[in-house]
């Protein structure tokens, strides 16, 4: 194993974060005014960090590719946010939330980071209630909770099916208050195109104004990347079309480790692909699995008749339905974790029991409507049912929804230590952009929890600990040679892209990459397929750099240039994902190597060989990246075979 200083504090698990806070270095109020912090991203992690650091007195520059911070992709999260409040009095605790998250991630995350996440979760709810986030409430006025996959308690706070939107509006309010106060300066429609290092430390960024095309230099004593995940490597995903992994690649090229790139989450409840011209996939919240039951026809001839349009799902008798999650996992039923539910759906469809195009299963609410009444279901999920009907033109109150797994969240990302700092001093990563808290699989309702934990309750301590040693560092002029050289490198890259003048559109090449990723680096992976993927991605990279056509120029708005620049980075991420998946000869969470499964088709880990974080180091344009390993040591939990039966 390589030696990584992950900076885990000493002491018992429940005391580590307290010990850290008790001994961290501080910056006094007058010195905070002398320090500049750059935060890239305005989703839950970025907005909460910018608002918090601005309120503390730091000078913050906050960047977003959107026209408003409110359009960050966090707005699309539907189902809820976890916290160990134990309001339903059903046995929850901080430890149980920690354990469910560690177990859900198939024992491939750091104990200390995950415990801290669980520990601060309750404070997040208090913070958001104080901001006026309209969480659902019970009749008596207490906040309501719903269940999510991977847990046997109800700990998920929600606002109908638009929790992400409401939480983001809360963070946005806090952020704009600081913008109005002058402690945060907001830059909209600006994209990070390079990170600037001075004497080995992150000291700024180069951005491109997406409206004018102008490149700008910005100095900061520290830089925080809160730029989301890289699921759009697959072209079709539940991510917004503008979501991209380019900031992570820029950090990777500057020497930051890229950790666990192969760990991508497949979400089991998405509207199935309906045509080759589709540009993205739509998520149906995991919260629907509280009341919806998942099934396929028990008889293959019934499935064939449904696919041929000769039979409707409502005509299938109860005894002729296979509620396969309830059958295979009686203890958790329809609320198994996402990776387990996704693989089970794939297995049924591969066996010939799929409906629709053959790549879909049913999510049925008849039992819940009969038991609770349509008005109750409408109050809980009305906007989700409405969205489904608008897209599919089918009424889910009367006919079961059709769903199928799709690429959703990425657990891999930039390597960070306990302080959320990368191996580049002064460069931090928060939220989905880092790898830290979810291991090989993220439990539902944990993304919002991690984003807000990092921004509101972790970075305000850890970044201060770093900046305490920087109070004598004066603000640098962006005329320093490092800034000049970084800007020149960006110009050269854009000119190279524009000079290709080939025959193919950016989207056509991205779709080709996406098909390779889904076929060989998707739900089921094997050595033969991954080797094909590595070879095919190298061919796609060559095709891109010799035959892509980008109309227009680098001045002014040029959406195709934006997409091309991001696709070049997606191609690199795809190669890294395939390489990492090939190296990890085990199955864990969202990484399912078909050669490594139990007799019952469950993921089979190899803890004696792969209990580590895969950390990849960039070695140059055409050189293979180097693999380093951070050993995962479990002092407080035992690594067990996951069991949801």
From TrEMBL:
Keywords on record: Cell membrane, Electron transport, FAD, Flavoprotein, Membrane, Oxidoreductase, Transport
Active-site residues, record numbering mapped to chain: 338
GO biological process, any: anaerobic respiration
Subcellular location: Cell membrane
Family the entry assigns: Belongs to the FAD-dependent oxidoreductase 2 family. FRD/SDH subfamily.
PANTHER family on file: SUCCINATE DEHYDROGENASE 2 FLAVOPROTEIN SUBUNIT (PTHR11632), SUCCINATE DEHYDROGENASE FLAVOPROTEIN SUBUNIT (PTHR11632:SF53)
Full protein name: succinate dehydrogenase
Species assigned in the record: Sunxiuqinia dokdonensis
